[in-house]
Amino acid sequence: MMHKITAFLFGLMLMLTACGGETTETNSTNTVEGNPTSILTAQSDSLYQLVIVKHDEVMPKTADIARLQEKLRKALAKLGEGPKTPERDTILNMLSKLEQADEAMMQWMRDFKSVEVHEDHYVELPETEILYYLKEEETKIEDVAKKMLSSIATAKSWTETNE
Fold first, then answer.
1. Residue 83, phi-psi category: left (phi > 0), alpha (psi -120 to 50), beta (remainder)
2. Strands 31-33 and 24-26: what pairing?
3. In the prediction, which pLDDT does 16 show?
4. CA nearest 142: which of 49, 45, 53?
5. Which residues contact 24 (CB under 8 A, 6 or more apart)?
6. Which residue would you say has higher pLDDT here, 116 or 33?
C-alpha cells in the first residue's frame, strides 16, 4: 500500500512539474513565454541580455584577481619590513588597483537591478527610462571590465617577470 501511495505522489509531482514549465507573463507591451525577462520589450530585453553577457564575460576574472593578490602579497612579504623602495611601492600600487577593480565589480553587482529580483523596478518604468537605465549599466560594466583587465594585465606581467 505504501508503495502505491509513493508512486502516486511521485507521478502527481511529475505531472505538476511538467505542466507548470511554460508560463506566459504579460506587461503592457510584451508577451513572451517561459522567458525570465518577459516583462521587457524585445529592445529592452536585448540590451538587458547584452549587459548580462558583458558581466558574465568579466566576472570569472575575480578569481585571477585573488590569485594575483596572493602572489603580490608573497612578494611583498619577501621584501620584509625594510625601507620604502620603488619595488614595494609598485607592489602596493598593483595590490590597490586589483582591490579597486574587484570592489568595482562587487559594487556593480550590488547596485544592478536584475529583472529576476527587481521586477517591480522595470514594471514601473516607461520603456525610454528602462533603455536609459540599461545603457548606463552597460557603460558601468564596461568600465568595471576595463579596470579589472588593466589591473590584471599589469600584475600578471609583473609577477611573470619577477617570479
1. beta
2. antiparallel
3. 34
4. 53
5. 31, 32, 33, 38
6. 116
